[in-house]
Design goal:
With 359 residues, the protein is α/β, with parallel strands linked by helices. It has 11 helices and 15 strands. The chain has 2 domains: 177 residues, P-loop containing nucleotide triphosphate hydrolases (Rossmann fold, 3-Layer(aba) Sandwich); 167 residues, Glutathione S-transferase Yfyf (Class Pi), Chain A, domain 2. A hairpin with a 4-residue loop joins strand 4 and strand 5. The longest helix is centred in the middle third of the chain and has 40 residues. The model has no long low-confidence stretch (mean pLDDT 96). It binds adenosine-5'-triphosphate and magnesium ion.
């Protein structure tokens, strides 16, 4: 179970030096606008996922007056994770004191979910965002998925380079196609198996937050459902050459989220969208727990926006049942502290001008 026991944040945005000992369950981070609440959540997120949720470049999170930033966390069972990001020397990520080449093992220790104002993009954003959502789930339950995904991306890059050449090297193309077909088929099968387990859990969780009649969620694999990927690549070759890029494969997969015939994002209000997205993310964590007994860490930035107090309580109750560690930010602590059961261990942290006081 991933629980952060101690968290140090140095020179991340306006947080010059923070050290906290979070509670096992609910941690309320409150303070005025611009005090540093989102920055604290961002630091935790970066440690688990290797990227920020608001800046494309990690460098943007370094305090403008500093040359590097450090984030360090002690988890259960003596597991430690540390990240140093420097302007000049890139980043160093350590898990249990050992330098890591990729984020794969750290991410496994810290399954991280976030609900914030960007979460709407799961409904209205590009397919890439929904693939990322789906792959988060598959990654945490199928341990060979990350490798297959990485290799498939490499094949895709090579294949696309070939497609752009003046003279197509057909023997090289056949070699990449054969590997890409195998990997793409594996990725598709694992995604499909995941969605088949995910949907019943979502169907149970969603009505606890909102009733959405006629909601239909389905997985689209990225090529014709009646053909193999090898055949689909063959049939698409002419088009691929024209575009200079592969038009079919697991990189074109999507999750269709519709109400009747319309995209859910076109029909639902902002608050309803937030409830649907929250249910989808919570259902993922419920499934993760069911399959692996792993609970993960939840980051929730500014829950009150778009949600009335009744819905806030509904979300908090569902989150609470997950039993995971939660970091939730708000401007006014009164809006959030009443959303939890009285017996859940709650830490309260007041953020003011980049400094934190534990209550
Ligand atoms: N690279 C940086 N270096 C230093 N300060 C930064 C950097 N990037 C952003 N800031 C500042 O950090 C402060 C904290 O921002 P943050 O988004 O964490 O605030 P917040 O508490 O979440 O506010 P809000 O309630 O408005 O969401 C802001 O004043 C912001 O301008
Ligand atoms: Mg904020």
């Amino acid at each position: 179970m991933a629980t952060i026991r101690r968290l140090d944040v140095l020179r991340v945005r306006n947080l010059s030096e923070i050290q906290i000992r979070p509670a096992d369950r609910v941690n309320i981070i409150y303070g005025n606008n611009g005090s540093g609440k989102t920055s604290l959540l961002e630091a935790i997120y970066m440690l688990g996922l290797g990227r920020s949720f608001r800046s494309a470049k990690l460098e943007a999170v370094i305090d403008t007056k500093a040359d590097d930033c450090v984030i360090f966390a002690e988890l259960d069972a003596g597991v430690s994770v540390g990240l140093n990001k420097s302007r000049k020397q890139g980043h160093v990520l350590k898990l249990l004191g050992e330098r890591q080449k990729s984020w794969v093992d750290t991410a496994r220790h810290l399954p991280m979910q976030i609900i914030n104002s960007d979460s709407f993009s799961l409904l209205e954003g590009s397919p890439k965002i929904r693939r990322r959502f789906l792959d988060w789930g598959v990654f945490h339950v199928e341990h060979d998925f990350a490798l297959a995904w990485r290799k498939a991306n490499k094949c895709l890059t090579q294949r696309n380079l070939l497609l752009k050449q003046k003279r197509l090297d057909t023997s090289q193309l056949a070699a990449w196609d054969s590997e890409f077909s195998l990997l793409g088929t594996q990725i598709d099968e694992q995604r499909k198996a995941y969605i088949d387990k995910f949907l019943p859990i979502l169907n149970d969780a969603l009505p606890r937050l909102i009733e959405i009649p006629d909601l239909r969620i389905s997985y689209e694999r990225g090529w014709d459902s009646n053909t193999s990927l090898a055949q689909a690549l063959d049939s698409s070759l002419e088009r691929d050459i024209r575009y200079g890029a592969t038009q079919v494969g697991p990189h074109r997969a999507d999750i269709s989220i519709k109400i009747g015939r319309n995209a859910a994002a076109d029909v639902l209000s902002r608050g309803q969208q937030k409830l649907l997205v929250s249910a989808m993310k919570i259902a993922q964590s419920q499934l993760l727990y069911k399959l692996t007994e792993e609970k993960g860490v939840y980051l929730i930035d500014d829950l009150p926006s778009e949600l009335d107090s009744e819905n806030r309580i509904l979300i908090c109750r569902l989150l609470e049942e997950l039993g995971c560690q939660i970091f939730i930010s708000c401007v006014d602590i009164k809006e959030i502290e009443k959303c939890w059961s009285t017996d859940v261990s709650t830490g309260k942290f007041h953020v003011e001008h980049g400094k934190i006081t534990t209550l």
